[in-house]
Amino acid sequence: MPEIFLYNTLTHRKELFKPIKEGEVGLYTCGPTVYFFAQLGNFRTFIFEDILRRVLEYNGYQVKQVMNITDVGHLTGDNLGNADLGEDRMDQGAKQEGKSPKAIADFYTQAFLKDLDYLNIQRPQIMPKATDHIFDQIELIKKLQEQGLIYQTSQGVYFDTAAYQAQGYNYTVLMGQDLEEKKVGARKEVEVDHEKKNPYDFALWLFTVGRFANHLMRWESPWGTGFPGWHLECSAMSKKYLSQPFDIHTGGIDHVSIHHTNEIAQSTGAYGVPLANFWLHGEFMNVSGKRMGKSEGNAFTVADLIKRGFNPLAFRYLVLNTHYKSQMNFTWESLQAAQTALQRLREQVGGWRQSQSLTLVSNLSDVR
Fold it and tell me: What CA–CA distance (Å, rounded) separates 53 from 45?
């Protein structure tokens, strides 16, 4: 196999890639929370992961790609590092649209798959849903309980980061900072579960009590009726379909300090071995110099591209002009330039094909 070097967030350096099993690669890519349409910033990451898979396959590797579909447990506060803050995005979306969580999940999952096709992103071979793997997630919590790494409050079951550190693990290894630095950076102004031991302990299972009393999705567990925390699903499903450890785990740069840090902690804490050997992260995409988001009014989707007359592949072409580890600034002007460049490239390639056909006809005439 040709040598391939990848920047590994886990070690903070570029390394020669060596798969666990010769000629095969296990690739896990964090997928969408299907409560609404995925935005272009998300698809920048999915395009980077698609290119990674294609490069590996081009170089002779057989890639088994798994991408999760999050249809429960992702709270609006999770990206802030407060797993006990906010509402479940799926529950919120279902109530806003007056539909069941399953109907919401099914609709936006299909929309996501359609957008993948528009952008010529290969569909992962395995796309498991969190709600189809509740048992696996409960089993993972049981393993953590055996290792003394959980505790229970009136609100839910939490991962004990202090106990994890006491067992010799480094909770912040992916971030490249120590726990005290993370503690300083923890948000103080938000309302949290005051029964938590530490602000960075995260929810494994949330009970359907208090503000979650009317939660639309709930399951029985050894600790009480409730639903799983967001981070749990990726650890449970990646192990189920790729084993542990596997080769490469990818996602957006925003996953480093919270989601992937928590995945590593619960997976290594439960099984005593790494979750993945390589971790790759795509950088943010801004819009006209501003953060992309619903609150900014610029969370554009693939449908928005089409409505404005753009070919979705022009966006893919635009994305490929910026290194995945560099921040990208999206503007409609840059997209127009990308579409023009793509069209010119197609015309040029089309000319090559026509020229080759004419040459072939000419040669055949000479033979006759």
Answer: 13
Q: What is the domain partition of the chain in residue ranges? A: 18-282
Burial of 162 (0-12, 13-18, 19+ CB in 10 A): middle
Number of Cβ within a 10 Å radius of residue 227: 26
* Cα-based torsion angle of the residue sequence 153, 155, 157, 163 in order, rounded to the nearest 10 degrees: -40
194 vs 84, 151, 262, CA distance in Å? 10, 13, 20
Residues in the chain, total: 368
Question: What CA–CA distance (Å, rounded) separates 321 from 341?
Answer: 11
Enter the pTM of the model: 0.91
Strands 24-29 and 13-16, how do they pair? unpaired
- Which of 54, 241, 228 minimizes the C-alpha distance to 134? 228
DSSP 249: E
264 in Cβ contact with 258 (< 8 Å) = no
Task: Return d(Cα 88, Cα 34) in angstroms, integer.
Answer: 12
Is-contact 43 115, C-beta < 8 A? Answer: yes
Task: Render pLDDT for 68-120 as a digit per residue (tens, 0 to 9).
Answer: 999 998 887 666 655 556 788 888 888 889 999 999 999 999 999 999 999 99
- The closest of 90, 230, 238 to 159, measured between CA atoms, is 230
Strand intervals (E) in 12-90: 13-16, 24-29, 62-67
> Residue 179 corresponds to which amino acid?
L
The tens digit of pLDDT for each residue in 135-190 reads: 999 999 999 999 999 999 999 999 999 999 999 999 999 987 666 655 544 544 33
The C-alpha atoms of residue 275 and residue 266 are separated, in whole angstroms, by: 9
Please state which CATH number belongs to domain 18-282.
3.40.50.620
